[in-house]
Specification:
Strand content: under 5%
Order of helices and strands: HHEEHHHHHHHHHHHHHHH
Largest sheet: 2 strands, antiparallel
Shape: globular
Radius of gyration: 24 Å
Number of helices: 17
Number of domains: 1
Helix content: 55-70%
Number of strands: 2
Strand order of the largest sheet: 1-2
């Protein structure tokens, strides 16, 4: 595909320059656009949950009209740590510029692991963030799960391509996969793939195996503590959240418009409104009723639901992006074909993107939900660019014999 990479480590000053460059780029773009700090409803929700944890010890919403709402604990946990560090809401927003710079740095290192140099991949991620309006002046889950996604990509590429399989890297890989899942539960298949790879590649080394087991145990304790605190406060066993049932029900409601572009809000039936307005049900019971209703919708006409989901998937991830993800997929397939040592890695990345895209398309049509494909798509697109540059260099560079003959002629022409 492209010229092979070197195994030299990236100097610390180069890594610092990359992170600072992309952080400042996004800050200057926001400054030029006149963007100001503006917290949306989701940001206020997560901040209130984090503040609620500091006083009550659980990530449950009790400060708004929707009481008893359990949200994924990943982002509230991060916000709680930042609150304990003394950061205000404005300080947390400014921290996100550094988070984006780190995401670009990890993507740069991933690209550099495959090739001799990097740069196009983080530029593509920056362009995608701007086009999707992933606003750094607002607290959004996209900033944080993208950080952990890019970290996973870098560690796996470092392990597979360069063979750097230290116990610390295994621990960091499992922790990053878990945090991506804790921030955005739809990324559960990614965490499962990370655990499968870590378990398979560490089984013959006791130190690596202990590192994986310890990290998984700590992650399990965090999740278990969240589940137990939710049970203590609500009386229900809740894994990650108790509000997605209504979203699934809205997205798969057969009475809604079938055009994917009109499914950003969905359509509530009388039965759904009855559940939503039933004061005798708590938030978890309403969520379970919505999930049962969604299951009935899906199973009543499974073929129709699959057809609509695939149509929405094409609209969200392919045609909505002017077929750029399709080009990235083609580049990923070419990397899998022409780089046999990394074939399993690229095929797994493509399959995971397809599975996650399908699950995302089963929900409401919100364009920023497509952001998770861009770290992988940026790496694959940069692979095609690297290959094109390498091909042009080989076409334009003189043959070794001709280069020697030319130098001999120059030597003969000297007085």
């Amino acid at each position: 595909m492209a010229e092979r990479r070197t195994d030299s480590k990236t100097p610390w000053w180069e890594a610092l320059m990359v992170a600072v460059f992309f952080s400042l780029t996004m800050a200057l773009l926001d400054l030029r656009a006149g963007a100001e700090i503006a917290l949306g409803p989701d940001a206020e929700l997560y901040l209130s949950v984090a503040d609620n944890f500091l006083s009550t010890g659980h990530f449950i919403q009790t400060a708004r009209e929707v009481r008893g709402m359990v949200v994924p604990f990943g982002l509230p946990l991060i916000l709680t740590i930042l609150r304990l560090a003394g950061l205000s809401a404005a300080g947390i927003v400014r921290t996100q510029y550094l988070v984006f710079g780190l995401s670009c740095l990890f993507l740069y290192l991933t690209e550099k692991a495959y090739f001799r140099w990097g740069g196009p991949a983080p530029v593509l991620l920056t362009a995608a963030a701007r086009l999707l309006r992933i606003d750094l002046t607002n607290i959004m889950v996209e900033h944080w799960y993208c950080l952990f996604l890019c970290l996973v990509l870098w560690i796996v590429s470092d392990m597979v391509v360069k063979g750097r399989k230290t116990p610390a890297r295994y621990s960091l890989l499992c922790a990053a996969g878990f945090m991506a899942f804790a921030v955005r539960p739809v990324l559960g298949p990614l965490y499962a793939a990370v655990l499968a790879y870590a378990a398979a590649s560490s089984r013959k080394d006791a130190r690596r195996r202990r590192a994986v087991l310890c990290t998984v145990l700590i992650s399990g304790l965090l999740l278990g503590a969240s589940v137990l605190s939710s049970y203590r406060e609500t009386g229900h066993w809740i894994g990650m959240e108790n509000y997605a049932g209504e979203t699934i029900c809205l997205a798969n409601n057969p009475e809604a418009e079938e055009k994917a572009e009109n499914q950003s809000m969905g359509y509530r039936t009388e039965a759904m409104n009855a559940v939503r307005n039933d004061a005798s049900l708590d938030q978890t019971e309403k969520d379970r009723a919505f999930r049962a209703m969604a299951k009935e919708y899906i199973l009543s006409d499974l073929g129709h639901v699959l057809s609509i989901t695939l149509e929405k998937m094409m609209s969200m991830f392919i045609t909505g992006w002017r077929y750029i993800p399709a080009l990235a997929m083609l580049c990923g397939i070419c990397m899998a074909v022409f780089r046999p040592g990394e074939r399993a890695l690229h095929i797994t990345a493509l399959l995971l993107c397809a599975v996650l895209a399908f699950f995302t398309a089963m929900g409401l049509y919100i364009r920023r939900y497509t952001y998770f494909i861009w770290p992988v798509a940026a790496v694959h697109l940069s692979g095609g660019l690297h290959s094109a540059i390498f091909w042009l260099r080989r076409r334009t560079a003189p043959a070794p014999g001709k280069e020697i003959a030319a130098s001999d002629r120059r030597e003969g022409e000297r007085p």
